[in-house]
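Thought: the user asked what Class I SAM-dependent methyltransferase looks like in 3D. I have the sequence; next I should run the structure tool and report back without guessing.
Action: structure_tool
Action Input:
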Amino acid sequence: MRQAFHWFTPEPSLREFRRILKPSGRLAVVWNNRDNEDAFTGEYSRIIRKASSNHPAESRMKSVEPLLATTHFGNVREYKFIYRQELDLNGLIGRAMSVSYLPREGAVHEQLIADLKSAHHFLSNRQGFVYIVYRTSVHLAEPLQD
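Observation:
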């Protein structure tokens, strides 16, 4: 379950996840939170917030609480690592346009594209790449028997 766990009603969803797992299966819940301490990532987040009228909370880590409290899974282990998404200008614009809560047309969209181009121009490396840095957390859980 990746980056959508917070949208589910916890208890019935966890029960269903346990039901459909193979006997040796595990549940992995993954969060990719932008590392806004990184210069480019912080600027990207600022641009996205500016362009969005419906920006979700940056951190959804509280969503793990139902997994820790459920009777359907146990032995929950957390693994953390850093992930860097390398993007050229077209990839950066494509990445932003893949976000459902950003405008696809109009003045705000045009300003979003201009801001992304400007950030890319000033912060890209010599090869023309920028990096969105994520702090990734993986919670791995084992199904419990009734």
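Thought: the tool returned a structure. Summarizing for the user.
Final Answer: Structure for Class I SAM-dependent methyltransferase predicted. The chain has one domain: 5-143. The longest strand covers residues 73-87.
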